[in-house]
Structure to design on (373 residues):
């Protein structure tokens, strides 16, 4: 800390000023508490510093306790409602209602708790839970489970797999890497998972990893609401045209929705997501489980609108090479129509799945992950 007493006369040298600084640099707590200067050799310094440090520590503890109590009260008010029946605090970073999004997460996590052994464990964003139809694989004698959730990023995939991979004996883990998820912060998926499951410590760790206070608020809110069933267990909230089949898969019944192309341009990757993608691959392979990274096909118009797709592909390939796992980009490998085979600008519809899944199956057989029946 700068000491005004070190402002000596003009004939003083910089060396002497620096010497004075060192003489008054005592303890960090003392500097935070007082602004006085003790003359060199003052033996009362030690006892005075101890008293001030003790006082400062007490103030910190008191402040922390009051802050925590106020925090719990505010979130409780947001959770339990306000006079007049208005639920939640509208203009805050506390989620106004527990997010439901697509509604399938609650069902999936309930089933996941009893899953034990599968040939293929799928994981990823909505591209996962809307793509890997278990009925197709059942017909070929392949057991599967889909851990996809809305807006799931590699950060979320990492914490989900760290929690569940030990309980589910998977023959291979397949992570669908949708380019856009590499640009997201992981908060949306975190809120979705917290709202649709019983609170657990791993969810708090995941929330902390996002670095967003909304995740912590949502976790505390879920703790307060812990006795209540998850939102979707009370009132299922699937999007129009969606049907939850089982084992994490959601079927879309109708064709193209009209959402044709986003003005994507260059997608700016979050370095944190690439880091967690590498950590996820390391986690899976470190447990001796084979892994496949893949990207499902996009409409040609959407793919053309992503101006740095080659760079994105190279970033994922670099991680795959580092851990010696295959990465397959299915763009250009399947004959698909931008309207007939997709229900929006990036999701396959059921007709698209009928064209894509046989190609995926044959690819996995060729890579040695599956065997022909």
């Amino acid at each position: 800390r700068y000491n005004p007493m070190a402002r000596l006369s003009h004939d003083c040298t910089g060396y002497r000023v620096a010497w004075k600084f060192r003489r008054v640099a005592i303890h960090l707590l003392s500097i935070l508490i007082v602004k006085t200067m003790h003359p060199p050799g003052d033996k009362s310094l030690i006892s005075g510093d101890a008293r001030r440090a003790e006082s400062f520590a007490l103030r910190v503890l008191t402040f922390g306790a009051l802050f925590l109590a106020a925090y719990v009260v505010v979130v409780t008010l947001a959770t339990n409602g306000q006079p007049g029946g208005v639920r939640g605090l509208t203009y805050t970073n506390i989620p106004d209602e527990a997010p439901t999004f697509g509604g399938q997460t609650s069902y999936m996590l309930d089933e996941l708790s009893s899953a034990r052994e599968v040939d293929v464990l799928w994981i990823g964003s909505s591209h996962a839970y809307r793509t890997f139809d278990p009925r197709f694989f059942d017909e070929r004698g392949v057991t599967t489970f889909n851990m996809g959730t809305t807006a799931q990023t590699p950060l979320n995939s990492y914490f989900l797999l760290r929690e569940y991979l030990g309980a589910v004996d998977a023959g291979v883990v397949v992570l669908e890497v949708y380019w856009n998820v590499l640009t997201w912060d992981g908060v949306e998926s975190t809120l979705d998972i917290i709202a649709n499951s019983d609170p657990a410590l791993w969810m708090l760790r995941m929330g902390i990893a996002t670095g967003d206070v909304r995740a912590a608020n949502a976790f505390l809110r879920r703790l307060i609401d812990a006795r209540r069933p998850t939102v979707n267990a009370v009132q299922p909230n699937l999007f129009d045209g969606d049907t939850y089949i089982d084992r994490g898969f959601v079927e879309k019944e109708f064709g193209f929705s009209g959402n044709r192309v986003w003005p994507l341009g260059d997608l700016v990757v979050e370095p944190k997501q690439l880091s967690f993608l590498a950590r996820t691959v390391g986690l899976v392979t470190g447990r001796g489980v084979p892994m496949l990274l893949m990207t499902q096909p996009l409409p040609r118009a959407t793919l053309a609108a992503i101006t740095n797709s080659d760079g994105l592909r190279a970033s994922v390939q670099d991680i795959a090479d580092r851990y010696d796992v295959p990465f397959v980009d299915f763009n250009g490998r399947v004959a698909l129509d931008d309207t007939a085979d997709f229900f929006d600008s990036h999701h396959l519809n059921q007709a698209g799945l009928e064209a894509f899944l046989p190609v995926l199956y044959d690819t996995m057989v060729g890579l040695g992950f599956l065997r022909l029946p």
